[in-house]
Write a structure and sequence with these properties.
The chain has eleven helices and twelve strands. By secondary structure, it is α+β, with helices and mostly antiparallel strands. A five-stranded mixed beta sheet has the order 2-1-5-3-4, sandwiched between helices. The protein has a four-stranded antiparallel beta sheet with strand order 6-7-8-9.
């Protein structure tokens, strides 16, 4: 059997990845599904009921396109990747967000998309408005500002301002954070959905909010312009100015829009006004412009009609939901307030308890100090009493010493008088001895002089005798003896006696001088002892207080 005739089996499903602004979802779709089937599946998955604002966008070549609801997915110019990537985004924007956006999920998706467009500079925003919008974005993300929790630097990782604004001023990230936090602190008690709504209410007043721009030419000479499509109508801009349109065509003033290949025609409702034509070079872009025009015009007309039953039900449910959440917030706020009050009361009680404990501790310490002071005073009183007794005893001893010193002083005076008398007698005796010694010395000198004279007379007599008695005898015989030897011995004996007497006198005189010195030294020691005793008595009389009664001493020491 030949296999060439067998057809390749086609897959029954294909994979799709749908990305919202804060989530990604993957689905397995049937081949026959249309764009509406996939779109409804995504809406059901995220719980979105206000589907008319949104669409699935995909990238094709150098532009983008929206998935058509009434045509099969695979029959459109979707990417051939697997899974096929779609972006779930807002295709049409409301005129007044506070009136048209009912569900919180719808509001949240718009908030995320508009915030990204502002940060990517697809929507121009002034620096002041950027800071205010950033403060509401911070409130939506972090809740109420708490300085104890939101420390400086807590916004360092968040992208909150367009790069153009950051580059426009020479400010540090800390300075920008300080400005944003100053506004953020004023948004207290605003819930997340309320903060997001305030963000959108400010953003919808920006000139480029909700506008889709396309490059066009006004004539075949290729005068370049920009076409803007939004919820209000069609606007013609200069290429270098997307903020102020040169010409506007509100939906209420347009009778018909048509295009033929590259030419678009806008017919005003007022037939007197000129028809406006412009050209677009790409057929795919022309189809996209037509889709946006039709969709925005349908919503414009829808807003001016009575709400459908479905929208009325959604608004009623949203109103009930908001009322319920408001009650819940009030209950939570009341509980939070009660909890904060309870915590404050607890803190106050703890503070009061700590204060009472400190006071009790201080009172106990004061009591202990007073007890210690009382013990110390009692001890001091006892010491004072003992000191008083000791002082009384010392006073008595001092009195006895004084009396003893007085007696001693009297004895010392008598002894001094006797010693002075002895000294005077010794001095007179010494004077007499000195006089006698001088007299004896004089006598000895006279005797020595007489002795010398006698020796001289004797020597002369001997000389004369020798001269007289010259030897007439023979030389061999000695001369006759004379009386010279006898006289010499007498003189020597006399001289020795005189010398011995002189030495005895000198020895007695020296002994007397030694006695006199001992007597003087004894007198001096007695005088010194008397002076010391007199000084000691005077010192005690000043140093030792007089005897006072026992009770007075104790009271004085205690005080």
């Amino acid at each position: 059997m030949s296999i060439l005739g067998l057809k390749k089996k086609q897959p029954k499903t294909f994979k799709v990845k749908a990305s919202t602004m804060d989530a990604e979802m993957e689905f397995s779709c049937e081949v026959k599904w249309k764009g509406k089937d996939l779109f409804d599946l995504v809406c059901r998955t995220i719980g979105l009921r206000e589907t008319w604002f949104f669409g699935l966008r995909y990238t094709v070549k150098d532009t983008y396109a929206w998935l058509k609801p009434d045509k099969q997915v695979l029959d459109q110019e979707v990417p051939k990747d697997s899974p096929i990537t779609f972006h779930f985004l807002a295709k049409f924007f409301p005129e007044k967000v506070e009136d048209e956006l009912v569900q919180e999920i719808t509001q949240h998706l718009f908030f995320l998309q508009v915030k990204k467009q502002i940060l990517d500079e697809e929507i121009f925003c002034s620096p002041e408005a950027s800071v205010l919008l950033a403060s509401y974005a911070v409130q939506a993300k972090y809740g109420d500002y708490d300085p104890n929790f939101h420390k400086p630097g807590f916004l360092a990782q968040d992208e909150l301002l367009p790069k153009r604004v950051l580059m426009q001023y020479q400010m540090t990230p800390d300075m920008w954070e300080e400005k944003i936090t100053a506004w953020y602190a004023e948004h207290r008690n605003i819930t997340r959905d309320e903060a997001e709504m305030e963000y959108l209410k400010i953003a919808q007043d920006l000139e480029m909010y909700g506008v889709s721009y396309f490059s066009i030419t006004q004539n075949k000479r290729d005068t370049e312009l920009l076409l803007g499509v939004d919820a209000q109508g069609l606007h013609i801009y200069s290429p270098n100015n997307k903020l102020s349109p040169n010409k506007s065509f509100p939906w209420s003033g347009i009778r018909n829009i048509s295009y033929s290949e590259k030419e678009f025609t806008i017919k005003p409702l007022d037939k007197k006004k000129e028809v406006f034509k412009f050209y677009s070079s790409q057929l795919r872009v022309n189809k996209l412009i037509l889709q946006l025009c039709i969709g925005n015009h349908d919503l414009f007309m829808r807003r001016r009609k009575v709400d459908s039953i479905e929208v009325q039900q959604m608004k009623a449910q949203a109103k009930e939901e908001k009322a319920r959440k408001k009650v819940e917030r009030q209950i939570l706020a009341r509980e939070k307030q009660m909890r904060e009050e309870a915590e404050r009361a607890k803190e106050e009680m703890e503070r009061r308890l700590f204060q009472l404990q400190d006071e009790a501790r201080m009172a106990n310490e004061a009591l202990l100090r007073s007890e210690e002071t009382a013990d110390l005073l009692a001890e001091k009183a006892q010491i004072a009493e003992e000191e008083a007794k000791l002082l009384a005893h010392k006073a008595a001893e001092a009195e006895q010493d004084r009396q003893r010193l007085e007696v001693t002083a009297l004895k010392t005076k008598e002894e001094k008088r006797l010693m002075e008398q002895k000294m005077r007698e010794a001095e007179s005796l010494a004077v007499k001895l000195v006089e006698q010694s001088e007299r004896r010395l004089k006598e000895a000198d006279h005797l020595k002089q007489d002795l010398n004279e006698a020796k001289d007379a004797e020597r002369r007599a001997k000389q004369k005798l020798l001269e007289i008695t010259k030897p007439t005898y023979p030389v061999m015989f000695p001369p006759p003896p004379t009386g010279m030897d006898f006289k010499d011995s007498d003189m020597k004996r006399l001289s020795m006696e005189i010398e011995r007497e002189r030495l005895e006198y000198m020895e007695k005189s020296k002994h007397l001088q030694d006695q006199l010195k001992e007597l003087k030294s004894e007198i001096e020691s007695l005088k010194l002892e008397e002076q010391q005793q007199a000084g000691l008595y005077s010192l005690r009389s000043y140093a030792e207080p007089p005897y006072i009664p026992h009770s007075n001493v104790r009271n004085t020491q205690t005080y």
